Recover the amino acids of this structure.
């Protein structure tokens, strides 16, 4: 608002001081001065609603929309690949970090249960591992694909599942995903991760170290259940953080003074799309484990997969609720903005309207007719000013009575 | 509106009285005075639509969005646990309040039907009870979880179900939920409640005391049906109270003068989310009892579970109707607000427009040309004023004819 | 509009006549006079859009939202109960009005087909009838319930169905419902109605009197089909009347001058909720008859129930069409209101804008500079007035060329 | 716009010429004159958006909403009934137009395939035909019903189907429907049409005349397939014409100057309801032929019914696409209207705002203070006028810089 | 904006210079001059929002809406038809371009696997090929149809499928489709394409040339899988390009200065309709291969069809995500436009409102009463001007305090 103030000031400065120069140069001087000021002031003021260019993450949209299951292998080869093996039974545990991919081949028939976790994907490595463990070439393709839809694939001697681990990036407020492929074969679980630096399995690693833990007592399918369970449970952590973000944005809506709210809401809707794209196929995936009659799955572990299934359904329903909340937040926000704007316009219109009669009265007695009544009366001016005052007051009282305030 | 009035008053005071001081100090004095007044008046006036900060329960959103089935046990241990046992057959009833959790172990094979109700959840207690009654460890986890989705779990020797009792808090207008877990085993029903202070089973307790009551004649599954039935029937009481709230908000909409209506509607939509999240899984749950072939359920009680099933379907459909009503309420409200605003703007625009010709006429005869006709005529002023009067009247009649009022 | 006219009149009366009193009292007099006028005029004018308080049937919402299947028996006992019995075979018909409920017990095994119709529900009566005819106590509860969802219940020796007869109240434009319970047992049909004064079975009663009619030739299940058929057929009569109401409201929309249209549309949407709540469960109900393998239903009557099924599906689809029509009606209405308002605002803005240059010209030549050109020219005034005239005309032609009219 | 021009003209005529009469009579004269003009001009101008009364076909709504399967036989008896019979085998064809309905009874067991086509429905005729060909009385009722939902009914010795032929009326842009009932019995196909004057079977009649055509080689079920196929194929012609209409309306939207666009869009949505009401049940109907195990249908003709099935599914999906297109057309239209209106309002507001400073400057130097600076300066007037010119230019440049144009 | 500037300039030129001519001719001169200017300036300025006539591709709508499965064979005969044959087994490959259609008949029982690809459809050719390979006449009709829905048809000796290859036209931003029909018979795959100039099979042709490639080792069904796989994989390329287009439009939305954004969004929604129309039936089609028990399909290739099935599901889900993104983009755009417009209107209203008190003060002291206080005071003018300055500043500070900026 300052700039209009400055404009007012400058406008009268013309009338009061500069006019003595009787030249147009004064105009140049004052247009220079405040305009420079305006340039500095602008972004924080009127235009705050108008220029969300940099705020709006079109790059994020591209990420969300990209999907390219088989055709063009954009995937960059991982620079370093880490292989870690947990080979255990209820009595003993061997934990190894491997230098090369080939060293894990020995665990094919170790007589114990083995978990081979491969961080970082390199085409050659994946192919050699899969060849060694008799995995179908189509699955190799799936492991190496990008933005693949979560899926389950059951073969005679193994079960393959591919899904995404989700992380919540608190800096960008985005839900990030990392593809993980899990192969359950006889006494072996092989997991492939894209990123060597993070996963959600640390508590499982701890439990494996304890001989008393259930996972040590049971076979490879229970291990596989554990991996799925930890991935799905981590979805709830992601949702909780997203829930916190929703709460923040809702507070922005209720404070009502942040012009970026709508952009934030749009962003939240995009993140929900990421969740939705994962939850529904993961539900099918876990259901696939439940319906499977593979010999690799013990009957008594059915219950555990049922438990994961219940959780993923709950996650899916919860994300629907998130959606509802966000939509009604958006409705509320748009209405608040409109009400605020309307209120301002209404007051402006009323003030302008109230001052109009005074202008008319001023015009009447400013006419140059020779015979205007009361012009010569000593109370004429007072009467006119009182009329100028009384008419708006009366109009106000009428407006008030009609509930226009 | 008063403050604009004050502004008008102050504005003329400048012209009439303060001007004699011929200094700018008078301006300071009146800007101080009314602004203080304004500060006091503001919240009740123009800004009433603009600042719903405190009204908007973002905390409520957080509650609704939270869900955390297994991972982090936020759950606080209950400080005191109450165990009450009803051990009965058609002839006799033993009702006991227990001091410790272990005392209820005796009722495992009492030869009569036992209802063990445990108010307040403590991890150790739940685990020891479940161990004693051969309940699977995953179920212990479910019982201790927070914001779990209603679910049914059938094992060889027991049926476990978890659902929420709903209460309507008339102070906050929120639907509150309390998780209840029910285990039906051979001749025993064990129920776990979070909150020791309220439940919905009092009328059942009364009926248990009467030897003639049907529940005394029948076994544990009929008791279990009774618990479910009372929980589901209480949903209708909650919905009735929510229905009353909808009616209140609808009256606010129709009175049309409450700026918080939209916030209230948004709040109602949130509460409906709570209902929806409960009804649909409870329907599945009851259907699970219907489809169950467990030996724990007598064939002849099928009919009763079918009855509960009908009720929960009715509740679900009714909540859909609530949703429809609320949505069309919101439409109506937004339209009423817009109509009201438009009406005010229209009248202001028309009044401003009607006074404009008078200003022009005033301007014409206020010009300082030496040769203006009628200036010297004694009827000139009268003619001009009449023109100022007649033109707006004519404009009005045109507007009127076009239906603009 | 009259009051603004009055305001204009009063406003100039101040300038012309009252000013001679030179006091503020005149203001009081004219604020009193027109304000009284305003009070009388107001409701028919500006505020017509603003105050739909009394129009908006919140009571209707409450009725639609209420549902209370078992818990609290709000139901008032009927003051008088009418029992009518039609006992017939193809040869003979006995029609009786009973004084007491017990008299109908004789028809349990009359050897002929009996239709016992009980108008008015009294707890004791229903219980005694049901006990006599071996009806399950849960069904007694259903019969006595209020706002129950239509349902079918099949037992060994009888089939119970509960549904609503719908009536269209042309005064309130509301769809009213009356609960009817029908029990089909061996050779007996018992029907319970809430209201003694109206039902939809009169044409059936006529047909029963004719020995040649099909219903006389056939058994109790055919009678039961007839009852269902007449109830469902009456739905179409209700829908036709609702369709007429939609047509009326649509005409209001197209005439575009009724501020209550939106309220009427909202009301129609509520009535559709009533239809929807009945049609979908009745479809299930009739489907239950189709799928039933009860010995009470003859194979050859399957076709008839299929026919009712087709009708109820058609009714359900039709009500969806009604919904679509109403929604697009609402869209059209809101748009018409906005267009009308915008058009008025546009004309006002244009007129105000057109008069602004004249004000400026008046201002220029009204300045008191000593050296203003043309002031002393005899054509100066004429030129200024012509400029005041020509500039708006030119602006108009520009606006016109741009298609702003 | 002309009338505002006239108003401007008249307004100045008062000031310039009529004022010499010094009476109010002149006002009467000019209010009479232009108002008459206005009356003639009005409908083509401002009010063009406001009064779509006659455009809006509420009658069409009534037609679409009507449905009356059995109850009240509104159906008028056909005044004349035409019966045409095609009795053929691969060798010979007999084509006859009958005078009376009874003459077709001979074709019940003609040893050849017979197609009896009855144009015009008379209750007595339908009943006697159906009695002769052993059709169930409920089917007679269906044939005579109005606005029946398409349905299939399979009996031991015949298959009955009822559907609508659709026609596109290019005058009213409405989709019209004519009910057709087809009965397939052993070696006989009987078709009942409402309207004697049009059907879609002419190309079939041509093909029947050619002994080489497939329909002559095959039996009654193939004939029945041909009837269905031609009806469904004609749906695509109707849709194509409706598609042309959508294209026309879309062009109106893009030209943006037709106030009836919204009415046209609403009308299109109504016609889509007619399509939707037909397509979905016809799909079920054809599916019924596919699933039927009736001896009347040859196995090898299954493929043909599958083909019809594919077409009706495509029609249903296409009508969904139509709906999507129409909805986004409506969005676009409403936005265009709003943008256009906002643009006009914005320009008006800017022009009014730009002229306001000039008014203020005129006011300042029009004050009657004795000591106003520069009043006596010869450049005073020039300076003021330059200020009046420079300030709006500067404001413009500021507005421009902020992107408000 | 320039033209209003010109209007301002011209307006004062009248006052300053032309008036000396004292005639109305000057008006003609200046109306001519700027109007010519306006004509040139207009399209780039105010009307930019208003006239999207040429932008809006109604022709595209027509293309999308057209569908005409059997009835009228619009299809033009191809002018030239290219037949290419790949006849191969694991040892040898014969690749031939044929001059005439009959030359390919020799490959019916070549003992090797043959792929006959026919580019360009001519009725006679298709019929003769189909007759030779025992294809059902209905399939001939399907191959020749236009805008057919993707479908699968399984006969005893062959499997027929029809689907569309999609291409993204980067010039028109439209998704183009080319119908392809594939017939899988014993050891032969016949494919019919509409357009001789493009297809998506080039990489397959390369692979066929390599004896080591899997496709050379396997039979006709594997070849058929390859064709389907490449078509479906190409859908992702189309979607990626459409995704890029969405990103572009989203950037337009965020830059906020392109009036055609809404048209672009509408266009995107139309292209999504094309995708949706293809994906859902192709999913059914591939599922048909999965469920087929035809002897033409080897069991071990099931996995490959499952892979295609997964891809088409992913494509379908992705297109749903596209839809969501586009819808929220549209919401954001409309809101940005409204906010921008409201902001401008608000500033205009505030400026107009702030200048109103100055006009009133000017009017007060411009009245011609003899007795106006301070008129003769030397500080009167200064005081009035200061009041004109101070009141708007004070109003500004009040507006500011209320958060109206």
């Amino acid at each position: 608002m300052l700039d209009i103030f400055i404009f007012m000031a400058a406008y009268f400065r013309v009338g009061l001081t500069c006019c003595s120069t009787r030249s147009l140069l004064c105009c140049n001087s004052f247009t220079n001065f405040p305009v420079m000021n305006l340039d500095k002031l602008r972004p924080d003021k009127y235009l705050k609603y108008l220029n969300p260019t940099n705020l709006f993450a079109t790059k994020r949209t591209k990420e969300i929309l990209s999907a390219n299951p088989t055709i063009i292998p954009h995937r960059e080869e991982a620079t370093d690949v880490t292989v870690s093996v947990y080979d255990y039974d209820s009595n003993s545990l061997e934990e190894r970090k491997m230098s090369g991919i080939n060293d894990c081949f020995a665990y094919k028939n170790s007589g114990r249960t083995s978990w081979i976790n491969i961080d970082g994907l390199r085409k050659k490595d994946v192919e050699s591992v899969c060849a060694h463990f008799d995995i179908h070439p189509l699955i190799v393709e799936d492991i190496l694909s990008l933005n693949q839809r979560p899926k389950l694939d059951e073969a005679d001697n193994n079960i393959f599942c591919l899904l995404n681990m989700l992380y919540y990036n608190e800096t960008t407020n985005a839900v990030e995903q990392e593809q993980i492929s899990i192969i359950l074969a006889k006494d072996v679980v092989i997991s492939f991760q894209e990123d060597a630096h993070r996963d959600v399995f640390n508590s499982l690693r701890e439990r494996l170290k304890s001989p008393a833990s259930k996972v040590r007592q049971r076979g490879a399918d229970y291990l596989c259940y554990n991996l799925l369970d930890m991935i799905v449970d981590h979805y709830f952590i992601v949702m909780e953080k997203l829930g916190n973000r929703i709460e923040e944005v809702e507070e922005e809506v209720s404070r009502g003074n942040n012009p970026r709210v709508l952009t934030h809401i749009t962003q939240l809707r995009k993140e929900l799309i990421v969740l939705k794209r994962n939850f529904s196929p993961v539900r099918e995936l876990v259901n696939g484990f439940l319906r499977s009659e593979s010999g690799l799955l013990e009957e008594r572990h059915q219950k555990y997969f049922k438990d994961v299934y219940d959780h993923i359904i709950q996650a899916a329903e919860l994300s629907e609720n998130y959606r509802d909340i966000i939509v009604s937040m958006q409705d509320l926000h748009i209405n608040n903005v409109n009400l605020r704007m309307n209120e301002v316009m209404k007051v402006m219109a009323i003030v302008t309207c109230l001052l109009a009669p005074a202008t008319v009265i001023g015009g009447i007695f400013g006419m140059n007719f020779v015979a205007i009544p009361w012009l010569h009366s000593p109370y004429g001016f007072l009467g006119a000013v009182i009329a100028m005052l009384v008419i708006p007051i009366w109009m106000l009282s009428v407006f008030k009575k009609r509930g226009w305030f």
